Every structure is written in structure tokens, then in C-alpha cells.
Give the backbone structure.
Amino acid sequence: KQEVTQIPAALSVPEGENLVLNCSFTDSAIYNLQWFRQDPGKGLTSLLLIQSSQREQTSGRLNASLDKSSGRSTLYIAASQPGDSATYLCAVVHGSRLTFGEGTQLTVNP
Amino acid sequence: DAGVIQSPRHEVTEMGQEVTLRCKPISGHDYLFWYRQTMMRGLELLIYFNNNVPIDDSGMPEDRFSAKMPNASFSTLKIQPSEPRDSAVYFCASSSAGYNEQFFGPGTRLTVL
């Protein structure tokens, strides 16, 4: 059974800092990995999708990497802003199923 | 496109009542997914459809839950009878292929008293 773990569970940083969120998964037989953002009381917004054949994907200040063999992914956020405050979830796709981690709650302080 | 549309956004009902949640996927997406999010269990896949056909319902908690997709633009998740432990946020998502990016609706917050 696929298990996804995210570390840390919560993170608080001052504005402007670069930061890394971590995601690990137990079964490396995945099709892709997707990072989401969830604001309180809201739905999930897709941030990045990394195909299993890719090693990284970039969108603006966000960069996600994937090391399938070691079962790890990281989400790098550059020059963090208060508007980045949210819960970040990673999810791995195996078959057509998404298995989610518990999320990292990020707070960026002005 | 308007994205994935869910209704109602909030539902409060009493134990024993029937609850029906609705979802309209993004046009052209062949896959539709129902998820449930709780504090205790996080986000869990309940069931997904491909071309209106249920493919995997192993996440449906029990027989009180049922889901249908009568056409490509509409799906329902029904709970009958509802129980307080069903209180959660229910999300619908769609994608153009099973392993492609999934797009989520805003969710339905269900409270069963």
C-alpha cells in the first residue's frame, strides 16, 4: 500500500526566505507526482505535476524535484511571500489513484 | 472553462437523512474522482469513473454511500442514511486521463448532526 509522508508538518518563516518542503513515498512505481496548495476552507489548487520520467518542474518561484528511485520529492519556494501561506500537499499517482500526504502548513510572516 | 463545479457548498443535515452531493467536471475530461477530507484521515479517494463507468470504488466506506455518473457532465455522491461520522469536506476532481493532472472543485462541507 502506497504511503506518502510530508515533512515538516508545519513551517513558519519570515518573508523573503527560500524554503523547501519534503515529500516521501514508499512505492516507487508511480506515474507522476502532483503538488497542491490548499487555503483554509478552500479546495485544492494544482501547482505542479512532475511526470515519472522527469526530474524537475518549474513554475514561477516554485521548483519541484522528483527522485523516483529514492521515493522523494521536494518543493522549493523562492523568495517567500505572505500570500504563500497555505497548506501544501503532495500526491502520487499510481494507476489512476492519487494518494495524498498529510500536508505541510506554511506560514510566511511579514 | 469554469472549472469543476460542486453543489451545494455547504450542507447541514440530521442523522438519518439522505444527502446528495453534485459535481460537474471540466468539459472534455474523461475521469471523475470523489474524495473525502477529514482531520483524522486526511484526503481519501472514495471512487473514480472513466467515461461514466465506475472503475474503482474500494474507497467507499460502506453501503450507505453510492455514486453515479449518468452522463459525462454530471455525477452524484449519495449518503443514505447519513451519520455524524460522515461529516467531512467532499471534493470532486476531474482529469483528461487517469495519470494526468487532476483539477479539484471547491468542495462540499457536510455536517451531520
